[in-house]
Amino acid sequence: MDKATLVRSDLEIEGRILEALSRGKIPVTLVDWNYVSEIEEWQLVIATPLYDSKGAHEAVSRVIKALQQAGIYEDVPILRVSVLSPNDTLVKTLEQEVKVLTEGSIHIVGLDQNKPNHENVYVVIFSPYTGPGGAVPARHIKGLVELRRFLEVSLHIWTTSVDEALHKLARKGNASIPNVQLSKREAKRLGLG
Q: Which of 70, 97, 124 is the last residue of a domain?
């Protein structure tokens, strides 16, 4: 089965967890999603030095306490959260994948321009400037508001660049945004790699 892309609720949960950990003064060296193929699900990996200094049980307990104090414990699918040591092999692998950035262009194509903007479907493709080649994954996004949010929030593209691309998209049905940098992990997480 193909990897499912993370959905917006997963990314929102990540943000809420990060905020809770910060408020709880829990040191972290990495917070990132990892796809576990055996269960066909994304899991949020939290690496904290507390794991080594206080033990696994204490580290997990402090994370749960921080989520409870933030009032989000009930909203977090805790079985999808892994608390690990910064020295764990998986954590080291994820850190390496996060550090490697690939530069390329984002291409946007409107599939049906005859519908109202909130119903249009757009295809978003990240095309790296270098790489092994092959099929390029595409992400389908419904509605102009969702497209703008994806470009600005998920891809961290400047609003002026997004405005320019959306203006061209409205005129021509397609647009490109050059010089976008994504790590391999980000591209995979967003359904673009």
A: 97
